[in-house]
Design a protein that fits this description.
- Its main location: membrane.
- Belongs to the mitochondrial carrier (TC 2.A.29) family.
- It is a multi-pass membrane protein.
- It is a single chain.
- The protein is mainly alpha-helical and 357 residues long.
- It has a single domain, classed as Mitochondrial carrier domain (Mitochondrial carrier fold, Alpha/alpha barrel), CATH 1.50.40.
- Helices cover 73% and strands 0% of the residues.
- The chain is built from twelve helices and no strands.
- The longest helix is centred in the middle third of the chain and has 52 residues.
- The chain is elongated, with a radius of gyration of 24 Å.
- It starts with a helix and ends with a helix.
- The model has no long low-confidence stretch (mean pLDDT 79).
């Protein structure tokens, strides 16, 4: 079994475990990113729902139960396994080629045989681009499922505001209380992966499954920065302990956890605005007369966010994302490295017992 396959499978396993542990934070963070809040001085009907992460978690549990925190978990786990598997497989393939080129250059008298920071960026960017193009439809569905309840609540608010407007204009047939009661009595329809897929297709056709692809492709620099910091830090740590194999194996799971946390922190802070734009584009577009809540594309989303909500809207929920991303990346790196070590030992023992294998 090649090291690319081993790393791909280990990455998928680590990603699944990290996703299960941090998923409630991811759900809340997606809702924070897609919540529209008008900036001061702007005459806009955008509702204000200020809330801390902890309060929002309690609010979700109160209104939707614990299951609300895990909306879209099944496609998310599929997406995580696919994303991490695809990413780590191609990352290892390109990494092997980069290391081979560096070794070849050293034999020719150029360089010391190590892969430079720019090469790590290129390797991570190539792997990330392939990952995004192949798995974006899954994440569109996950975002829809995570924000479905929030979108339905806003649709209900828009309908109530429309009733109030009709009442003021004396065009409402029936009493306002009756109409409000009628709205409140409407039960939410079941909403699963298939429903989300049908909704996306109905809105935008096949293209809808690649909504947010532009900011997502730009965000390829996130794992690029993350892996540049991680690989550089890991290389420095190993170098300070010596060049022998025993020293290389002396990096502990805790140290990998901390290096993963440091790498993800730097990457998340620098690319977070793109993540917010991506979530806004992939979430259900608001229904009603308020065009400030509907985006036709990446540039339109950016312009409307700046005009109606201000620059601070690009950093909504960042503290939640930092906690979720850092913990998830740390767990992922730690579990992945341990799985790779375990796989290497098992393969080595298997080869000793059966040399032909």
């Amino acid at each position: 079994m090649s090291n690319a396959v081993v790393n791909g499978l280990a990455g998928a396993g680590g990603g699944i475990i990290a996703q299960i542990i941090t998923y409630p934070l991811q759900t809340v963070n997606t809702r924070q990113q897609t919540e529209r809040v008008a900036k001061k001085g702007v005459n806009s009907p955008l509702p204000r729902h200020p809330s801390t992460t902890l309060l929002q978690i309690f609010e979700v549990i109160k209104n939707e139960g614990l299951g609300g925190l895990y909306s879209g978990l099944k496609p998310s786990l599929l997406g995580t396994a696919a994303s991490q598997g695809v990413y780590y497989y191609f990352y290892q393939v390109f990494k092997n080629k980069a290391e081979a080129v560096a070794a070849k250059n050293m034999r020719k008298g150029r360089g010391d045989g190590s892969v430079g920071m720019f090469s790590w960026l290129v390797v991570a960017a190539l792997a990330g681009s392939l990952n995004v193009l192949l798995t974006n439809p899954i994440w569109v569905l996950v975002t829809r499922m995570q924000t479905h309840t929030q979108a339905e609540r806003k649709i209900m608010e828009a309908k109530k505001e429309n009733l109030l407007k009709k009442a003021r204009e004396n065009t409402l047939i029936g009493t306002l209380q009756e109409k409000f009661a009628e709205l409140e009595s409407m039960k939410p329809q079941p909403y699963g992966t298939f429903d989300a897929a049908c909704e996306v297709y109905a809105e935008s056709g096949i293209r809808g499954f690649w909504k947010g692809i532009i900011p997502t492709l730009i965000m390829v620099c996130n794992p690029s920065i993350q892996f540049m910091i991680y690989e550089t830090s890991l290389k420095h740590l190993k170098t300070t302990r010596g060049e022998n194999k025993k020293a290389a194996r002396s990096v502990t799971a805790l140290e990998v956890f901390l290096l993963g946390a440091l790498a993800k922190l730097g990457a998340t802070v620098s690319t977070y605005p793109l993540l917010v734009v991506k979530s806004r584009l992939q979430a259900k577009q608001e229904i009603g007369g308020n065009i400030s809540q509907r985006y036709s594309g990446t540039l339109d989303a950016i312009m409307k966010m700046v005009h109606h909500e201000g620059l601070s809207s690009f950093y909504k929920g960042m503290s939640t994302k930092i906690v979720q991303s850092v913990v998830a990346a740390s767990v992922l790196f730690m579990v992945k490295e341990e799985l790779v070590k375990a796989s290497t030992v098992l393969i080595s023992k298997r080869r000793k017992l059966c040399p032909i294998w």
